Amino acid sequence: MLCGRWRSRHRRHEEPPVPAQVAAPVALPSPPAPQDGGNKRPGLRALKKMGLTEDEDVRAMLRGSRLCKIRSRTWKKERLYRLQEDGLSVWFQRRIPRAPSQHIFFVQHIEAVREGHQSEGLRRFGGAFEPARCLTIAFKGRRKNLDLVAPTAEEAQRWVRGLAKLRARLDAMSQRERLDHWIHFYLHRADSNQDSKMSFKEIKNLLRMVNVDMNDMYAYRLFKECDRSNNEWLEGPEIEEFLRRLLKRPELEEIFHRYSGEDRVLSTSELLEFLEDQGEDGATLAHARQLIHTYELNETAKQHELMTLDGFMLYLLSPEGAALNLAHTCVFQDMNQPLAHYFISCSHNTYLTDSQIGGPSSTEAYVRAFAQGCRCVELDCWEGPGGEPVIYHGHTLTSKILFRDVIQAVRDHAFTLSPYPVILSLENHCGLEQQAAMARHLHTILGDMLVTQLLDSQNPEELPSPELKGRVLVKGKKLPAARNEDGRVLSDREEDNEDEDEEEEAGAAEQRRRAKQISPELSALAVYCCATRLRTLRSVLPQPCQVSSLSERKAKKLIREAGNSFIRHNACQLIRVYPLGLRMNSANYNPQEMWNAGCQLVALNFQTPGYEMDLNAGRFLINGRCGYVLKPACLRQPDTTFDPECPGTPRTTFTIQVLTAQQLPKLNAEKPNSIVDPLVRIEIHGVPADCACKETNYVLNNGFNPRWGQTLQFQLRAPELVLVRFVVEDYDATSPNDFVGQFTLPLSSLKQGYRHIHLLSKDGASLSPATLFVHICIQRS
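== Phosphoinositide phospholipase C ==
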């Protein structure tokens, strides 16, 4: 159970808020659009820092282009698009002006830029335009694609190339570069008359823009300390001095001085001592030298193998200093075990972009699922006109898409992010003729990608491993060998399992279930994933090539009543769990309960953000985000005694000290005086006995550099299954707290020591450079 998701906000009136303190962040949030609709253009400092001011493609984007935006056959509007001089956001025109933040999109939120008719929208509605003039900007999260047509092919190419350069440069930026980039953008915005001087009033505006409500007396004292000319203005070096003081990190300075001693630099041996205290694997003098060579900015210090405070801060803010084990961001697990030994990223109703009642269906939903590492997608197949099967949520108002278009999307996008095999979970409602058409499309479109026969004739009953790269498996009903001529078997519809009262005898339910024909052509494609109803957990011999689909209710019942037997079954055979049909708004269930029992294919509505999808993203964050994660040994052994309901006594103590946060995003960019009151909640998701959450106090009016210094501790019984979710919320005493950001990862991939947590949005997009700074200790008994 998550604590406090809908709890009363009056619970801590007796606790005094932590006062706002100025502990200096290292970076600033995404800039809003210019207040005058895009005409106010700050200096080119940001792009100069990116080294792109002389790039012809970027210069053309700065001038802007009139591009035709396409939504439908009749909605095609010309709009002005222009790169802002921060180099990280694009301003665009709207027919009806809206809030400034509604007139921009950010380069860091772009998932891909596609050329030509490479989106569903342009394929359907862009036929009148030559492909060379067309481009699609696909975004992370739920934002719809932007389908555009340029006046010329060259102008389209300028945007394609320019966005590619900006994205590449952004990915390569260090946290320190992001700091310099952001702070000077906001500095220009706060300089209301653009005279390169800052009055105290402008300084106060700057502070509000960056999400801190600083005491006037303290702010003025800081201002006057930097006003060397004593003229009530800051300019040139005075502004830089103010920024330097503002951006100090006292907590990092304290740690640095603890190890550096009086000379205020770290030698290789002193840095090695810090690394050993951090619990770094393989900490050696050679590794310390390598870190100095990589992160130290001062050439003299580098030549003498010394690290300054700046180099130390740069290291702690780098991926090597982050909470996520850098070695786990690549494929590091054994990928040669049977498929049943892995958690596999799985989507439910993949074709939907919204609710399952009236939401649109789209091939783009499959593209987005693959971009998130999904390896098992669902196709609800129904009879369509003209002999062509369609995909949609049957008996609802959801729109329909062609089966063949989805298979083309699988061919074109399934292996862009991950090379490991994809499973197509067919929910078949078609007659024999259109089933044959489905089989034909699978063959002709996928070609050699499609697995059509056993790959190991020596072991025909063994599942392949994920090393079956670039191949597509079909999950569907298989005709019994003795009944191929007759071709009558049960439907493979999930709902067949759910329509019945689950307490009824299987035999009675069987008699009422309508039989359905399965075509031999489609049956032949179910090679390793033969859909079968789970009747018992007491099978004498395991059937590795049989896959059962269970509703979340049925799976929970099995976990509760036959936990260990269910786990033993899942050690050998694949199980797919899906949400109850009663979830009309396409809400999700907690996937952790299913992973605790070794269920491999835990299907979620990828289009619905929430903590459930955060957990899914956290589970598959590691192992190169390839969509396959090796299950713990206790879930892979056929004779395991593990039971998630009885995991034993605590054997791991997890202690986390929440120290500070840096540059949390403003929740309302249109209200300068709206400052967050942040608190941090740590959630433990694992076996029921381990599930817990604890939170810090809130800090009043400071999203810029809040400080907590609070320690939270957890006792864990099954640490190998634990996911840790770091959540930042804006405290509200009278209503539910507002979500600010989160980050979720497996405990087994969490590094110890002083670490930065890089926060994500509700949709899983980066909130860079927003971070938490924590100290982590994991003690195993």
